[in-house]
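Long-time lurker. I teach an intro course on protein structure, and each term I like to show students one example going from raw sequence to a predicted 3D structure in token notation. This year I'd like something fresh instead of my usual example. Would anyone be willing to generate the tokens for the chain below so I can use it in lecture? Attribution to the forum is fine with me.
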Amino acid sequence: MIKGLKIFDTPENLARYLADELQSSINNSTGNYYLAVSGGSTPLVLFDKLAHPFFRNNITWDKSHFFWCDERCVAPDDPESNFGAADRILFKQIQIPEANIHRIHGEDNPNEEVVRYSNEIEKIVPAGNGSLPQFDRVLLGLGEDGHTASLFPKSNLLFIYSNIAGVAKHPVTGQKRISLTADILSRAKRITFVVTQKAKAKVLSEILNDLPVSKNYPASQIKSAAENIDWFIDKEAAFYL
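-- Reply from a regular --
Happy to contribute to a lecture. Here you go:
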């Protein structure tokens, strides 16, 4: 039995379950709730669920602080912007203070934005064990090459400890991105990998079964370092389990 593994019939059922969990976590939080989210298709299904009146009207949004695990170096109105999609589907539908939305400024100079974004996180997110900030929860996806956030295989960001964020480059397109480091992601109080689609089933199986090849996958390194981790997957992603 794989610890923290939950398998759902459809991405929609997964998103509904996760929305229920987030509602409970946020509303029952004694203080602010600090969440870092990722891009991709499945989080968009989650955002759509959260924008439904059932959740929209019953979550204490003023306690919710949204950050991003990574962002492409594009403007917020670019179709590739992770923030832009979340803003359109969720934030424009709910009553959340603008000051609670902490986007990565992908349109700015990447090296300067890493410093600004890191300083904003340090200022707002409370420190955990040690001096680095600790998110209450991070939501991560999984790529077919084993990447997560914008931590790609052989990424230097995997080995920069005590840094919060850095500049990454897509190994195929060369597109620059800003990403939280493996170190800061692994320190979160709770990490949830959200994985759908059969195309990711093979790499997911290798990671969850700790096969030797999985050591090459950034997501596996997060798995090894984290203390409290969940895997929410659909039946397509569970094909090889």
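Some talking points for your students: The longest helix spans residues 11-27. Residues 5-234 form a domain with the Rossmann fold fold (CATH 3.40.50.1360).
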